């Protein structure tokens, strides 16, 4: 929704908004754009001179602002529908869907197009380091959109990505998530197939060949040419890891070597993200060699294993973690790089995590960490202590961020890599720890 606000501002609209617990980097981006932001969903925050209200999917019936909006009779729409009607017509839309890696892959794709001189527009769920904003209109014909499977709004329960009508769609991966709105994996697969149904036959589906759940989606029907990418099996686009960390790899197209890439990211999952982005860019005419040339200059996105501080051999990272698989791949990628111990500091914050949908998988997901620290807020309905059972290294479960930070500070030593993982603000725990490290 912050990105939607940025696009509306760039179009020349006067924009203001309300939200709960806004935190950087989005809060600072909105301030820099001159977008007035009010704290809390209150009816009085919707000014009398507002022409249209764009409603995010965090709001439900019963919310005072929603009820006042409906009673007023004034026009309203969803963020996804506003984008589809006001920005996407006439553009070549490239949509990036998947349980994991949407923000990184969308940022990669936008950067490849930018590097190739295509000046793309984009709407990304984080702030890419290669661009000063998370969204822009762009001067070129392409528009990259991070295509989320979460529902659209209280009045539109379809997945947001069905609004975008892409010419090219990346299907990056698919696992069970969003336990608050989807009963099982099959329900999410059905939504992904709704997206597949909107891609024209002149377009392209770029699909992870290693993901059986996506193959099941395609088996429901596909009317668009499909190109697959993989590392461990045959596909149209493949990679050979020259280093276990994924910091150096070779890219092949239909078995023909295109070149080797050395870049600042690591982890097998990021190599897969790169393959998807290169394939999608090629589908709109970018030379794959030019795409590979862009990768060494890629800066990922804020809060995607973002390095915050380094002192006394200790490195602090901030990572947007919301699912056990994302936690596993991040920690395994970090483990594959040279360095000391890995300390994982986790806030189970996503709706699925809070509900306990992933509680059994969290322990195995954290096995690559040498020490584990878990925030157990009072409202957490499942046994957080069980996550640490069987973990050989040190760790702690704390009921507050202050207590959690004290536990990490008591354990950390020279050479450690400390990774804070949360899909929320985490009460600024990563930044507070980084300041403590710099000042101690």
Automatic annotation (TrEMBL):
Keyword Lipid metabolism listed: no
Stretches assigned to the Mur ligase central domain: 96-281
Pfam families from the UniProt entry: Mur_ligase, Mur_ligase_C, Mur_ligase_M
EC code: 6.3.2.45
Catalytic EC class: ligase
Domain Mur ligase C-terminal: 303-424
Catalysed conversion reaction: UDP-N-acetyl-alpha-D-muramate + L-alanyl-gamma-D-glutamyl-meso-2,6-diaminopimelate + ATP = UDP-N-acetyl-alpha-D-muramoyl-L-alanyl-gamma-D-glutamyl-meso-2,6-diaminopimelate + ADP + phosphate + H(+)
Binding site for ATP: 98-104
Any one GO MF annotation of this record: UDP-N-acetylmuramate-L-alanyl-gamma-D-glutamyl-meso-2,6-diaminoheptanedioate ligase activity
Cofactor section: Mg(2+)
Top-level taxon of the source organism: Bacteria
Family annotation (InterPro entries): Mpl, Mur-like_cat_sf, Mur_ligase_C, Mur_ligase_C_dom_sf, Mur_ligase_cen, Mur_ligase_N, MurCDEF_pg_biosynth
Residue intervals of the Mur ligase N-terminal catalytic domain: 1-85
Keywords: ATP-binding, Cell cycle, Cell division, Cell shape, Cell wall biogenesis/degradation, Ligase, Magnesium, Nucleotide-binding, Peptidoglycan synthesis
Pathway(s) per entry: Cell wall biogenesis; peptidoglycan recycling
SUPFAM superfamilies: MurCD N-terminal domain (SSF51984), MurD-like peptide ligases, catalytic domain (SSF53623), MurD-like peptide ligases, peptide-binding domain (SSF53244)
Membership in a protein family: Belongs to the MurCDEF family. Mpl subfamily.
Role this protein plays: Reutilizes the intact tripeptide L-alanyl-gamma-D-glutamyl-meso-diaminopimelate by linking it to UDP-N-acetylmuramate.
Xref: HAMAP family: Mpl
Name listed for the protein in its UniProt record: UDP-N-acetylmuramate--L-alanyl-gamma-D-glutamyl-meso-2,6-diaminoheptandioate ligase
Native source organism of the sequence: Pseudomarimonas salicorniae
